[in-house]
Amino acid sequence: MKVSICCITYNQEEFISFALDGFLMQKTDFEFDIVIGEDCSTDNTLKIIKSYQEKYPGKIKLHANFSNKGMMNNFSQTLKACNGEYIALCEGDDYWVDENKLQKQVDFLEVNTDYSICFHRVYSLEKDKRPVLSNLNSSLKQETYSIQDLARGNFIHTPSVVFRNGLITKMPEWFKDSPVGDYVIYLLNAKYGLIKYLPEAMAVYRISTGIWSGQKREVMAKAWLKVVTLLLQEDFGMETNVIIKDHWRNCANAYLNFFFPLDMPGFIEELQALAKVDEAILYDWAFNQYPNFIKNMLGSKSYKIGKKISTIGNKMRFNH
Questions:
Q1: How far apart are CA 128 and CA 11, in angstroms?
Q2: Closest by Cα among 46, 43, 25 to 96
């Protein structure tokens, strides 16, 4: 048996050594290799990876692009190069801190064939701060999740996941257009089995250093909306598809909140475009969001002050 560690990297020279050291310290009773998709870094990332190749011949498979392929193309071609029975994910700025991580996860999946994915809790690390336990999934005991749970939103950090290779026979055509790859991969794999959560924190996820976590909130909201819009094209089964549609409406409303009420022309344009996907979004705003906006406005301090000034002004005019 063999496990392939899939790692994509771009301009991460200050982090890549942490990732590689975390991979190489793994103690396993099975073989594993490290498959790296390097997307034309302009710093010393490629040079550092090649130095590790020299130290550990045959352990690291490097796929260095001659021109920048972009995140999703790089991710796709790196996944295709993974030929282990299991695949573990870790981006180049994250790293593992438990030498038995792979062994624990693979041991579980080997025995429990009705599970397709195994993940665990992680530490979160912001720049110039110490790692803290992530709250994305904070249960202190082992948990089992289904595809319906995952369809409501992502609760899996990339450096924590191990999944069975080969369950997805062909990637959807729309996958190349998705701004996010890992969540899509999890859902596609979850079609074929349950999801196991282990409470041990065995990896570190860096915040605001990668391509995704460093984006502004509005950009992330728009990207996440596109991901779920693309997921609507996939058949996950009736129950899961209904949940994904609800997830889409939540994402659409979150995105529209960046426009309303400060940019009404932009809000109307985006609302009309989203209504072409699902007209129900119009009712969300007509009957839910807009009345709440009016209610909040009427209860605001500025409105109450304005009302008092208006009342005093009217009294003065009538008294004269």
A1: 19
A2: 25
